[in-house]
Structure formats: C-alpha cells, structure tokens
Amino acid sequence: MAELFPGFTVEDVAVSGARIRARVGGSGPPLLLLHGYPQTHVIWHRVAPTLAQHFTVIATDLRGYGDSDKPPSTSDHAPYSKRAMALDQVEVMEQLGFRTFHLVGHDRGGRVAHRLALDHPDRARSLTVLDIAPTRHMYEHTGYDFARAYYHWFFLIQPEPLPERLIGAEPRFYLHQKLASGSAGLSPFSSEAMSEYERCFDAATIRASCEDYRAAASLDLAHDRDDEHRRLALPVLALWGRRGVVHRCFDVLAAWRERATRVSGTSLDCGHYIAEEAPDALLEELLPHLRCA
C-alpha cells in the first residue's frame, strides 16, 4: 500500500484497549481520518497525499477492521461501542504527540468521530462527517427505502453466529456485493484498494464488524439518548452523496443541526463512497473548512 500513500509511514500504536494501525504523513496541524464499513484506512488514498501538503495526516484502521486488533466482545457489545472505538483514536493521537486535532469520518468512522467529539470535546478542533446522519436519527426515522437499501444495518445485528456464518461462507462475494451497492457500482475502487479490502475482510473482521453494528443498535443508542440534550460547539461540516441513500431518505443538515450549533455542508455529485468517487469535490469543500476551523 505504500505506493498509494507516498511519503507516509506505518505505525502500530498500542492503546489501552487494542493495537491500532495508523498511516502517518505530511506536516502541519494534525488531521485524523476514520474509514467506514467494510473497508480500511485505504479509502483515503486519493485525498491523503493532497491533505498531507497542508496537514499531518493520520489515517487509522478502526478497532475491528484492517490491520488493527479485533479484541473479544462481551454480551453488551461494549468493546465495539463507538465510545470504546473513539477512545482508541484519542489515545492514538496522544501517543503520536497530538492532544488536539481535526477529525474527518466516513460511514462508521463518522459515527466514531461524532462520539469522540461528544466524549472528548477538548480534543477535536473540527468535525467532518461524510454521508451519514446521526445514528439515532437514522434508526428512529427508518422507512421502507432506507431499510431496503441499508438492509445490512438489520442483518449484521442479528445474534451471533447467523451473520458471521452466512458472510463467512463467501466473504469475497459479500464484500463485492456490499461495495457494488452504491450508485457507481465497483467503479470507484482501484484494483490496489480492492485487493486490500479483500485481504482484510477475514473471519476476525467479519465477527468484529458485526459487533460494531450490534453495539450501534444497542449500547450506542443508549449513549446517544443520554446525550440527547447536548449539542456540539465545534465547527461541523456535513457532506453527502447526491446519488446516495442518505440524500434520498434524510434531511442531513437539519439532522446535524439538532446535534451541533455550527453546522455547514452540502451534497456532492456522487454516491456513498465520497473519498474514492469524488476526491476533488471532497477536497474543494474540506480544505476551506479545515483552514478556517
């Protein structure tokens, strides 16, 4: 993967709950990039080199994904709560020498980033969320179109070992079907990136990612209810794909303005996988936000 991230180094950072894989490059203010399901930090390969001209970029594999640890879970799914995953990232940044940082998250990474900003408000300088509305909002406003398109939200939360066994029977087929479900099919994904996603989508990742979704539908919702009257004070940029499910099913800006006081954003001419489908459009919106935050 070095060719996709020229000038970056790979770090394995031991934190209190796991060992987290990070790719680090560039110079300037620190910027943490968090990926989504069912991928790895490689999603950022089309934007990270440009971002590294202005920032110290840290792109990590979330706990349970990529080359990060996949620790055992518990009956309440706490090891895969967004609270636990957010703490991993705070500790990674601390060990790399950064107490505060800008934060960008796509998909599951956006949910981890949202929780990080809530739990550690003194750490995040700004928050950018890509193609998500807040988790609780999406569950509580689920309709036919959303449930049909995001069936995996309801499949992956089924009790172990049902989804693990079914996905594990043909993991490469499932991975390709999931990635191809976006409006652009498989066209956004380079062969190098796809090979990496395939390599990392093993039995341990399948198990851990199911736990990620089980936590989202249980403990994460409880944490969100506890914080229902809190609103983030930091600058929040929300970007989403105009051809995607989130655009079709939710009022993204309105949903985030219920959770934060300083929200801006817009849709981009792409589907769900923004960093790989529309890297130039993403950078055009993201760089001014980061410079002004």
Description:
This protein is 43% helix and 19% strand. The mean pLDDT is 97. An eight-stranded mixed β-sheet has the order 1-2-4-3-5-6-7-8, sandwiched between helices. It is an alpha/beta fold and 293 residues long. Strand 5, helix 3 and strand 6 form a beta-alpha-beta unit. It has 15 helices and eight strands. It has a single domain, classed as 3-Layer(aba) Sandwich (Rossmann fold).
CATH topology: Rossmann fold
CA-to-CA gap between the ends? 31 Å
CATH class membership? Alpha Beta
Strand neighbour order, sheet with most strands:
1-2-4-3-5-6-7-8
Number of domains: 1
Please count the beta strands (DSSP E, at least 2 residues each): 8
| Backbone shape | globular
Largest sheet: 8 strands, mixed
Summarize the model shown:
This protein is α/β, with parallel strands linked by helices and 293 residues long.
Task: Describe the secondary-structure layout.
Layout: E1 9-14, E2 19-26, E3 30-34, H1 48-51, E4 56-60, H2 82-95, E5 101-106, H3 108-119, E6 124-130, H4 135-140, H5 144-149, H6 152-155, H7 162-169, H8 171-180, H9 191-200, H10 203-216, H11 219-226, E7 232-241, H12 245-249, H13 252-257, E8 260-268, H14 274-277, H15 279-292
Parallel strand pairs: 3-4, 3-5, 5-6, 6-7, 7-8
Antiparallel strand pairs: 1-2, 2-4
What keyword list fits this structure?
293 residues, alpha/beta, Rossmann fold, eight-stranded mixed sheet, globular
